[in-house]
Design goal:
The chain is an alpha/beta fold. Helix content is 35%, strand content 18%.
Length: 296
């Protein structure tokens, strides 16, 4: 009888220990079951939820990648980060857009396709972030002055002075002389966009810069086209940015959106208010307005 009582007591103790560990530690997932992603993993993988296309190489040999969302015939092309690490917040804005489209595929009307190029200047971005590809604001130096070398590609050319609209070998950034390259489209990055546009003829193009705040129309001595005026107003009204017919703070040569206007493609520049914020709420509203504008 005594032995039986001892056996029962031991079984009760073992059962209690087993229950403790069962509730303390969740059961392992069955083999092959999908594991929930951490926030870091999610940030690294959402951009891979879209078909990708390497449209060219940078001067330093890095891939220039376009991400495609939707399958419609009207292509809206969003280009960020022509000025690399100096305007790193525009690349983060592009990643915000890519995450949004990956998580909300129904946001794209059936007749549209959205293409996002998060950086056209991966060399300049890597100079500042120390990374190839996706990064966070924590990778950025505290001093804005430390980001200035990242404005240029590996050939030390300002890519937004290298397009074929008023191109000059010596351009200006505010009051600072910058290189426009040895000829229009001398740089592999600008060649990549030129060739992509020739092959795809996008319906409209949005380019992101920083920092002045506003939506700016494009033209190359032909006046602002009616469609460019329309999408300038649509984006500005939705986002709350001010609308401008042109960027007239100082003379710009070899500008990308002005070259696009020369190709009869409606194009606008969105210039963020500062060098640190993506202003996602404002830009989400502007993007949605463009998607609605081109919906059937």
């Amino acid at each position: 009888m005594k032995n039986t009582a001892i056996v029962v007591l031991v079984l009760i103790i073992l059962a209690g220990i087993g229950a403790y560990f069962f509730y303390l530690k969740p059961p392992a997932a069955a083999p092959g079951a999908e594991q929930p992603a951490t926030s870091t993993e999610q940030a690294a993988t959402t951009t891979e939820n879209a078909p990708t296309e390497v449209i060219g190489k940078s001067a330093g040999g890095r891939d220039i990648t376009a991400y495609h969302y939707g399958t419609g015939s009207k292509e809206l092309l969003f280009i960020a980060d022509l000025h690399g690490g100096y305007e790193w917040n525009t690349a983060l804005l592009a990643y915000n857009l890519m995450d949004y489209l990956a998580q909300n595929p129904n946001a794209i009307p059936a007749n549209e396709k959205v293409t996002v190029i998060p950086t056209l200047n991966p060399d300049g971005l890597a100079k500042v972030t120390g990374k190839d590809g996706r990064f966070t604001a924590d990778d950025i130096p505290a001093s804005q002055a430390a980001t200035v070398p990242g404005r240029f590609n590996a050939n030390n050319v300002d890519l937004n002075r290298n397009f074929d609209c008023d191109w000059q070998a010596k351009g200006v950034w505010q009051s600072t002389p910058v290189s426009g390259g040895t000829a229009a489209f001398s740089e592999p990055e600008t060649q990549a966009i030129r060739d992509y546009v020739a092959a795809h003829t996008p319906t409209a193009v949005v380019a992101y810069y920083s920092a002045a705040g506003g939506v700016y129309s494009s033209n190359c001595h032909g006046g602002v086209s009616p469609e460019t005026t329309t999408i300038t107003k649509a984006y500005a009204d939705a986002s709350g940015y001010a609308a401008h017919e042109d960027f007239n703070f100082y003379d710009i040569t070899g500008d990308m959106v002005n070259w696009l206007a020369k190709q009869q493609i409606p194009a606008i520049s969105i210039v963020l208010t500062n060098h640190t914020s993506t202003e996602w709420d404002k830009n989400e509203a502007g993007i949605k307005a463009l998607l609605a504008h081109y919906a059937e």
